[in-house]
Amino acid sequence: MSTEKSKEDNQENEPNQQLPQPKAASGVYGLIIIQIITKLFTFLLNQLLIRFISPKIFGIASYLEFITSTILFFSREAVRLSVQRIQAGRNDDGGTKGNQFRIGTRSGSLQSVINFGFLACGLGLGVLSMVGYWQYRTDMFQITFMKLSLWQYSSLLIIFSILLELIIEPVFLIYQFELDFSRRSKFEGLAIFLKCVMTFVVVVLGKSMDSESFEGIGVLAFSFGRFVYSLTLFITYSISFLKFNQENNTDVKYSMNKIYDSKNESSFYFQNEIFKIWKEFFIQMLFKQLLTEGDKLIINYLCTIDEQGIYAVISNYGAIIARLLFQPLEESTRLMFTKILNSTATTSSFDSTKQSFNYLKLISIFYFNLSIMILFAGITNAPFLLQFIIGRKWGHNTDLFDLFQIYIIYIPFLAFNGILEALYSGMASNKDMKRFSSYMIFVSILIVCVSYLLIEKLRFGILGLIIANVINMALRIGFCFVGIKKYYSIRSVAGLSLMNVVKYTWSSTFVMVVWWGVQYLVVFGMNGYTTQSWKQLIGSGFICIGLLSNLLFLERKNLHGPLDKLKSRLTRQKLD
Question: What is the predominant subcellular site recorded for this chain (predicted)?
Answer without folding.
Answer: endoplasmic reticulum
